[in-house]
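Hello again, I could really use a second opinion on something today. I've been staring at a protein lately and its backbone has me curious. Please have a think about how the structure follows from the sequence. I owe you a coffee for this, so here goes:
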Amino acid sequence: MYEHPELIALVRDGGGAVLPADVPVALPPHAQLATLPGRRPLGLDPRTGSVVEVREMKLGKRTVRASAVGAVLPPGWTRLALPAYRTSSVAPVLPQWAYTAAAWEPRLGHVAYALHTDLRRHWDPAAHSTPELPGLVSERLRRDDNPLLKQLARCALEWRCFTAQNTFYVRDEGAIPASVGCNARCVGCISEQPPEGPPSSHERMEDAPDARRMAEIGIPHLRDAPGRTMISFGQGCEGEPLTRAHAIADAIRRMRNATSRGSININTNGSLPENLDLLIEAGLDACRISLNSAHAPLYEAYYRPVRYGFRDVVRSIRLAKKRGIYTALNLLTFPGVTDRQGEMDALCELVGSSRVDQVQVRSLAIDPEQYLAVAERTSAGGPPRGMRTLLRRLRGARRGLVIGNFARGLAERA
């Protein structure tokens, strides 16, 4: 990485390159810097006020081609701005990370335009992927031939899924993947992409576990795990768990027959309200429903739902609250889109009228241009107001609303 000797850093707000509206922070611990191939950085010339595309730089006697750089944030941080760059005609589709605007500041060194939105430490990267993890996985597999554990071992070791790792650490929130199929075709799906798309972040599991196998994972975790004792259906290596509601309901009943300890949660697209009701009847006590927008055209353009629509998602949110389970939204945020006036208005109306308990803000992991191509024709529109304004508006939409990045255990729920 090199600091340009003259140009001032710019960020992208969805419409183009602009001066940052926010003050950057020192690059957080465990953040990474990533090169953005085929994308040339943009900076502001302070003498002329013009935007300059940096094609190359002189470094001593060498001339090097320039590529833009973005930051990838650790858990608990929310992206405030996108990197500013111009894309060449032969640029590849970027891998699925949430690229954040990065720069250099003389006092702080490497900086990123980000906000620390969840201060809790249980998802600290330093406590995951530790040297003893492979041994814990091997020992668990030696003692237990459950094929679902073999899937979780891949997730823990190959893809570094923290929730899967917790299953082997026996702490906090553990994972139970349940479904191989999905009734959505998300543009940014992390487990299944078309040949022309980016490489998937995970491989989707091939065999759907039965209720007994899922319960055999959940029972010891709920019984023995310290901390935020929880198991969650709906993981990155699977499809939509509500499509397997009957098997999951059977697994939940088996777990609750064995122990009343801890929380049972589902991460879902909320597409099948009747199936969600079935799980609540079986003993589900929390759900996290994902959405990128509360504006139906943008939601459906990104999720590309099969035999359901945004109205079904809203029905699921309201059903969960009516049935008295802890209800969170998994809000996939994207600066320059999520913070537009029309999008904020629709989201705040949904949060206020549905009286959800929590909004978990998650920076959407996708090539920015992929998402902007979807949003430019389907967004609710309006000028971008900034991610900080979005968070303030959400807090005002629902008294007592929790905003963070992580699920809450039983003891953390108001």
User: Anything to note?
Assistant: The longest strand covers residues 326-333. The CA atoms of residues 227 and 234 lie 21 Å apart.
